[in-house]
C-alpha cells in the first residue's frame, strides 16, 4: 500500500531559517538544483545544510520510516535534492512522475519533500495524484516507465498521458498547501508533479530528503557510489561513503571540504 503523510513540523523553525540562509546563494550558482554533495557547495554552506539535516533526523519524519520498515533511516546525500522553483519559469516544472526513478525497486525508500517557505498560495509546491475510489492500478504506467528506461526517454508524464494509463475517472489531483517546515512524506509509488499554481508570484525553495535502509539499498543505489548520513546510537551525525558495497566512514570535516582540494 503506497504511503503518503503530511507533517507540519518536519524541521524546526530555526532549521528553516538556517536553510534559507544557505540555499539562495547556492541556487544562484547551480541553476536552481543541487544535492548535499554537489561540488558547487562551499564548505560553510555545506555546514549549514548539515545543521538542517541533523535537525531533520532528530525530528518526527524518521519515526515514520522506522514504523514502516523497522529500522532507522539513512539519508542519501547524493540524491537529496535542494531546489529553487522560480515562479515564472515553466521550464523548471516537472510533470507527473514517481520517485521510483531514484530507487529502481521496492526496497525501503521514503521521500520527505520539505518546504522552506509557506507554499501552495504564492509559492508552488506539489500536486499529488490520488485515487477516487480504490488504490490506483499503476501496472500500465510501470510498464511504460520500464520501456522509457531502456530507450532513455523522459520519465515524466502529462495529464493526458496519465488519463490514458490510469483512466480519467480513476484519479484526481490534490494540491499541497502547507507552512514552512512542513513535509510531504511519501514512498516511490506516489505519483506527483510540480504544482501548477496560477497565483504563484514568489520563488520557492525546498529540500527533498530521500531516506533508505543501509542494509537493503534500492537497486539503483546499489550500483553507484553515494554519500549517506544517519544518527549514531548516541544521536550524533555520521557520514558514510558507500561504493562497490563497501562502507567508508567520513568525518564531518572531510565531507565539508569535499571536492575543494583541502582534504
Comma- or semicolon-separated keywords:
29% helix, 3-stranded antiparallel beta sheet, 13 strands, 263 residues, 10-stranded antiparallel beta sheet, 8 helices, alpha+beta
Structure report:
The chain has 263 residues and is α+β, with helices and mostly antiparallel strands. The protein is 29% helix and 26% strand. It has 8 helices and 13 strands. Strands 1, 2, 3, 4, 5, 8, 10, 11, 12 and 13 form a 10-stranded antiparallel sheet that branches. A 3-stranded antiparallel sheet has the order 7-6-9, with no helix packed on it. A hairpin with a 5-residue loop joins strand 11 and strand 12 (237-243). The longest helix has 17 residues, at 13-29. The mean pLDDT is 93.
Task: Describe the structure in brief.
With 263 residues, the chain is an alpha+beta fold. Helices cover 29% and strands 26% of the residues.
What is the succession of H and E elements? EHEHHEEHEEHHEEEEHEEEH
Structural class: alpha+beta
Helix content range: 25-40%
Note the gap between the termini. Answer: 45 Å
Poorly predicted runs: none
The whole-angstrom Rg is 18 Å
Average pLDDT, all residues: 93
**Count of β-strands:** 13
Which range does the strand content fall in? 25-35%
Shape: globular
- How many H/I helical runs? 8
The biggest sheet amounts to:
10 strands, antiparallel
So what's the oligomer here? single chain
